[in-house]
Amino acid sequence: MAKAPPLTVEAIAVQNVKPGVERQNATRAVALAHWLQTDARRAQNSAAQARIFSADSRERLERLARRNTYHKILLTLAKAAVEPRDRRALLAEVLDAAITLTKADMGNIQLVDPVSGALVIEAQSGFDPFFLRYFAAVRGGATACGAALQKRARVIVEDVARSHIFAGTPGREIVLAAGAAAVQSTPLIASSGRFFGVLSTHYRRPQRPDEDYLPLLDAVARQTADVLEQAPLVEP
Q: By the 8 A CB rule, do 84 and 99 touch?
């Protein structure tokens, strides 16, 4: 004969109750406990599904916001191509858009000084005065922006602390002290091929920027350089 399934703790408890009303009440209590447990599990599953749905919705809304930022800054640059604009105010808007597009925490835009050839900060967000003084004029390649200046190409440093670009340089400690653990630097190159500077965004944690949005960043960088080359910008 097949063995009967083992009794649950609740069933054993019911068996120990005397027959009659007390056992009926105990049976109802056990049934109610089972129902409550099942209902609780369903509630937990529903909550988990809601969290997944909420996270997915947040991600979709975030991507939509980033696309919207991209279109807005392109429109701003298109208007700046025909209307006089304050150069630094325009670059500050470009920088804010770039930080949003790359999901970064801080950033700066440096333009090439026509006399010295150094990169000079024209717009920044999130940096302390010490950082800004140290990187006031960058010429060499011992930084991400300096490497982008030399290569005329984007440079991505996923982890400043481990990067060979920053290895053994004072700039490494200054960048880390400013709270920047990763950085990407994109050159500002006009459609004509003329190099104007570098747009950098920084992250508080080691990471890579989202590859899906780098082409959008390139488009913003190119149009920014085109405006710098052709538009009637007003010096601050």
A: no
